[in-house]
Amino acid sequence: MAQKEEAAAAAPQNGEGNSDNLDDPEKLKELIELPPFEIVTGERLPVNYFKFQFRNVEYSSGRNKTFLCYVLEVQGKDGQGQMSRGYLEDEHATAHAEEAFFKTILPTFDPALRYNVTWYVSSSPCAACADRISSTLSKNKNLRMLLLVGRLFMWEEPEIKAALKRLKEAGCKLRIMKPQDFEYVWQNFVEQEEGESKAFVPWEDIQENFLYYEEKLAEVLH
Known about the structure:
- By secondary structure, the protein is α/β, with parallel strands linked by helices.
- It has one domain (about 40-195, about 200-220).
- It contains seven helices and six strands, in the order H-E-H-E-E-H-E-H-E-H-E-H-H.
- The chain has a six-stranded mixed β-sheet, with helices on both faces.
- Helix 5 links the parallel strand 5 (about 145-150) and strand 6 (about 175).
- Helix 1 (about 25-30) crosses helix 2 and helix 4 runs parallel beside helix 5.
- The longest helix has 16 residues, at about 205-220.
- It is globular and about 45 Å long.
- The chain starts with about 25 loop residues before the first helix and ends with a helix.
């Protein structure tokens, strides 16, 4: 269940296609051409990427990428703070988006500052990435993390279960994305038509799938 497959469909144009097909998952798969194996960063992701990659389906066929939207808040002792946001995407043949965040977005920590990080991720981390997050949290007590995921990745595997438990023990707050969270990502991290902002339209089973994954996560972390 909820596994990422090694292959995904390709299309002639990357991120382009007939917008009338964007609500059909199979059509979306045809529209998306995977870029070269590399980490991609930006402020807003294409609409078709969001609708396909973030959809909280039970069987995640073709979704072999991780999309990570982040909000980083850095606060000094004087109460002054700075906030930045953006997204990363990966190919699983190279560094994962979770690891790339700590290499490119937040590579060092100043003990005089406080860091609050919120991730909205298309699926939960693999065991190695979960352990990397746990290790970073353990080493940096001035870091707080909230990790919201659309789907659970290979959650039935003992190695994944153990890693997610260690993540919780390290202090990371791990949650399944609610419909309101998908709407937040849509409004703040997805490309909009110039001059207008289209309202988020939930897919039919968004609430049902949220409850499904919420139950499974509770079982894993119990």
